[in-house]
Write a structure and sequence with these properties.
The complex is a heterodimer.
Chain A lengths: L2 E5 L2 E2 L2 E2 L2 H10 L7 E8 L3 H7 L6 E6 L6 H15 L3 E5 L2 H14 L2 E12 L2 E8 L4 E6 L6 E5 L14 E5 L29 E5 L6 H14 L2 E4 L1 H5 L21 E5 L5 H7 L4 E6 L12 E4 L2 H9 L3
Parallel strand pairs in A: 1-4, 1-6, 4-5, 5-11, 6-10, 7-10, 12-13, 12-14, 14-15, 15-16
Antiparallel strand pairs in A: 2-3, 7-8, 8-9
Helix pairs in contact in A: 3-4
Chain B lengths: L16 H11 L2 H8 L4 H11 L3 H9 L5 H7 L5 H9 L5 H9 L4 H9 L5 H7 L5 H9 L5 H7 L5 H9 L5 H10 L2 H9 L5 H8 L4 H8 L6 H8 L4 H9 L16 H9 L5 H8 L4 H7 L7 H7 L5 H9 L5 H8 L4 H8 L6 H7 L5 H9 L5 H8 L4 H4 L10 H8 L4 H7 L7 H6 L6 H13 L2 H5 L2
Helix pairs in contact in B: 2-3, 2-33, 4-6, 6-8, 8-10, 10-12, 12-14, 14-16, 16-18, 18-19, 19-21, 21-23, 23-25, 24-25, 24-26, 25-27, 27-28, 28-30, 31-33
């Protein structure tokens, strides 16, 4: 019997949806007799406790402090919990918040540690975490022999958000003293994407130089609309002003963070473009050039004309 | 503008061609040496080759690089081992002479497949490979646009679906070959035959009455169909067939009348056609389907009055279509420059023919698409372009690369941009002076160094005559 703790996150007093994904990740390895507690640090943590009291959560630990981003404080909270409760597992969403406190907390407390975890399981009762390695080329199983407590950050948009009404007790925890070495200047909001959500889209149809002319772009907007996909593009298309920059996938564009099916039509697959999509599990590439780099990362490849393939697809939707 | 040939200032520590070459050799940078190679005199090339081909790893990089000079690839093909041969066979820049050399001692079927598919493979190579005993090699020969009609005719007799489909799609397939293939192939092969411009007339006639819509759809795409056949297909009950007919470039404007067309999909395709009768354009401009209006709003033959009407549409993409229409009158561009949608504004900002009043309305914008479009526009004031070059958005800053009228200050800023791609791309800007280009020879990014060396080499006529 052991305790599992989720570090929930808030932004300006609003609960981050990814917190409930971390609860699902934690629940997936909860064993008989284990308890699951969720910690929330905020100016008014009680106001967020209800949303965290979902099925499977036994306790919500409310730490009254500040709504400001304060990684040193969360690091101190983790340290205090490890010392007082000796949890077997701590889970928190992978992202800018966790990057700022999780590695330091793991080192200072001698925790087992893995980031950007995609899946969790028990093998003979022992925890095994799966994460990607070598730029998403391989999946690695990681175990933590000899570690009494393991800290994991879970990849967002992989675990379903926890749901179902729970009946967790709410416990107050005094904010521990923190050695504050950082100062948060403020959040910079991403540019208004006009309703275009590449990071949140599960199905992206992307076009590249092969589209050849601005007058042809509309055809693929229409096709994406019919197929229920979000239209993305490679850099030259956005550089030409043929599609909004919010649709650009790549290093200086958007990350296809939630994508499960990426259809790349007329995209050569530059390093910059691959940065934004090579992690996607199902990539379908259409290109007239059989040597296009995109084929090296595609699960399915069609050497052919993107317009011909698009016409065929139109017959099916 | 100052060019390297007439520039007597120090170019990153280099004063002349001799010193430039000496520096390239001393530094031993593969990418700088590659950039200089094509425009160098034979003696300099020999010296550069010692840098470029120094290690096996570098030889493998060069063999696979599509930007590598063909002469260098030709030299690499001499005595190439299997690994090098495979990379050369895959490289689209490898010349025919090198491909022939590789073929003479090629035992690896994978390499032969790439040779068979290579765009520079000549008749001799394709003829020899068409007798290969590996099916994948034969498929590649059949799919190569350079394969002769005689070879295509021979391949058509092989009982392989992939080869037969490739033959059916080959522009080199003549009517006799297609007629023989019709009896041998399956329905997919027959469908491809029907779309072929050399398809025999009797097969076209048979297909017109086929019950299989795949056949009729492909038939409707055949560019050699006569007016009667086209009229018949335009009335087909299947909207996929009608769509293919409308897409067919052979169809004449007067043959298209979408008045009674129930399918929005077909009307959208009609609206895309470059030539349409005035009454068809007018009807489509008021079509209930917004995609039809989006398409027709871009039609170059759209009269100003209808453009004005579409410019008041509730659908931003329709208004964007008007903003991108080459026939959009200046006063309408001014109106659209003040549109509530930034995407419509960006459509105006992209136009070099936008009146000054339209551009000035956009100067206070902070939307990244509008700023990116202004950054490309040669009529944007210099102060705005300099501000765009200093944007905190790498994609917005890059717009300066595409603006031939960008001021020196903006260009210089891009040469020091923190995003490597922006530095690599600004190297191609005519306004970047030679001294700045020379400094980029020391850039940490290989693509920037290569681009800088390539440009300097082109601007250094001395490089070709020295030694």
């Amino acid at each position: 019997m052991s305790e599992i703790i989720v570090i929930a996150l808030q932004r300006d007093g609003e609960l981050r949806a990814s917190s409930l994904e971390a609860v699902t990740a934690a629940r997936s390895v909860k064993q008989a007799g284990d308890t699951l507690g969720v910690v929330i640090v905020a100016a008014n943590p009680q106001a967020l406790a209800g949303a965290l009291s979902v099925e499977g959560v036994d306790e919500v630990i409310a730490v009254k402090a500040t709504d400001e981003f304060q990684p040193d404080l969360i690091e101190a909270v983790v340290t205090a919990l490890v010392k007082e409760r000796k949890p077997s597992l701590i889970v928190t969403p992978h992202g800018v918040d966790a990057w700022s406190f999780a590695p330091a907390a793991a080192i200072k407390n001698g925790l087992g540690f893995a980031t950007d975890v995609l899946a969790l399981r028990r093998e003979g009762g022992e925890l095994v975490a799966t994460r990607a390695g070598y730029a998403e080329k391989v999946l690695m199983d990681i175990d933590f022999p000899g570690k009494a407590t393991v800290l994991l950050t879970n990849r967002t948009n992989v675990f379903e958000p926890a749901a179902g009404q729970g009946s967790a007790k709410v416990t107050e925890m005094a904010a521990p003293a923190a050695d504050v070495a950082t100062k948060h200047e403020g959040w910079k909001q991403p540019a208004d994407a006009g309703g275009i959500d590449i990071p949140g889209s599960e199905f992206i149809l992307s076009i590249g130089r092969g589209v050849a002319d601005e007058s042809n772009v509309e055809q693929f907007l229409e096709l994406a609309d019919k197929m229920g996909a979000t239209l993305g593009c490679s850099r030259p298309i956005a550089d030409n002003g043929w599609l909004p920059k919010a649709r650009q996938v790549g290093q200086s564009g958007q990350l296809a963070a939630s994508c499960r099916l990426y259809v790349a039509m007329g995209v050569s697959g530059s390093v910059q473009h691959q940065w934004g999509m090579k992690h996607v599990e199902n990539i379908v590439a259409v290109n007239t050039d059989p040597e296009a780099s995109i084929f090296s990362i595609a699960r399915y490849g069609i050497v052919g004309d993107m317009f011909e393939i698009a016409s065929e697809l139109e017959n099916h939707f | 503008m100052m060019t390297a040939a007439s520039d007597n200032r120090v170019l990153g520590g280099v004063r002349d061609c001799d010193a430039l070459t000496a520096r390239v050799l001393a530094v031993g940078d593969l990418y700088v040496a590659l950039g200089f190679y094509t425009d160098a005199a034979p003696e300099i090339r020999s010296a550069l080759e010692t840098v470029i081909l120094e290690t096996r790893r570098q030889r493998l990089i060069v063999a696979a690089a599509p930007y590598a000079p063909s002469d260098l690839l030709d030299g690499l093909s001499m005595g190439a081992d299997d690994g090098l041969a495979l990379r050369l066979a895959k490289n689209p820049a490898t010349p025919a002479s090198a491909l022939r050399r590789l073929l003479r001692r090629c035992s690896d079927p994978r390499t032969r497949r790439y040779l068979a598919a290579h765009p520079n493979a000549d008749a001799m190579i394709l003829g020899e490979l068409s007798r290969d005993n590996v099916i994948e090699v034969l498929q590649a020969v059949a799919g190569n646009p350079g394969t002769s009609p005689e070879v295509i005719a021979r391949l058509a007799a092989i009982d392989d679906g992939s080869i037969q489909r490739a033959v059916a799609a080959s522009q080199a397939a003549d009517a006799a070959t297609l007629a023989r293939l019709w009896d041998l192939g399956d329905d997919w092969v027959r469908a491809d035959i029907l779309a072929h411009p050399n398809c025999p007339a009797n097969l076209l006639a048979i297909a017109a009455g086929a019950s299989d819509v795949r056949l009729r759809r492909k038939l409707a795409a055949n560019p050699m169909l006569d007016a009667e056949a086209m009229e018949h297909l335009l009335a087909d009950p299947d909207d996929g067939v009608r769509a293919a007919a409308v897409r067919n470039p052979a169809i004449l404007a007067e043959e298209i009348d979408a008045k009674n067309e129930a399918s929005a999909r077909v009307r959208r395709l009609v609206a895309r056609r470059p030539k349409l009768a005035a009454d068809v354009i007018a009807r489509l401009a008021r079509d209930p389907d917004s995609w039809v209006r989006r398409w027709i709003a871009r039609h170059p033959d759209m009269p100003a009055q209808l453009l004005m009407e579409l410019a008041t549409s509730d659908v931003p993409e329709v208004r964007r279509g008007v903003a991108r229409n080459p026939s959009c009158p200046p006063h309408l561009l001014v109106l659209l420059a003040a549109d509530r949608s930034p995407w419509v504004q960006a459509g105006v900002a992209l136009r070099d023919d936008a009146p000054a009043a339209a551009i000035s309305l956009l100067l206070g914008a902070n939307d990244r698409d509008v700023l990116g479009a202004l950054g490309r526009n040669r009529n944007t004031p210099a102060a705005t372009l300099e501000a765009i070059a200093g944007s905190d958005d790498a994609d917005v800053r890059r717009a300066i690369v595409f603006n031939p009228a960008a001021p020196q200050a903006a260009i210089a800023r891009l040469a020091g941009d923190p995003y490597p791609l922006n530095r690599a791309m600004i190297v191609g800007h005519a306004g970047l002076d030679a001294a700045a280009v020379a400094e980029l020879l020391d850039d940490p990014e290989p693509q920037v160094r290569f681009a800088a060396a390539r440009r300097l080499a082109r601007q250094q006529p001395d490089l070709a005559v020295k030694y």
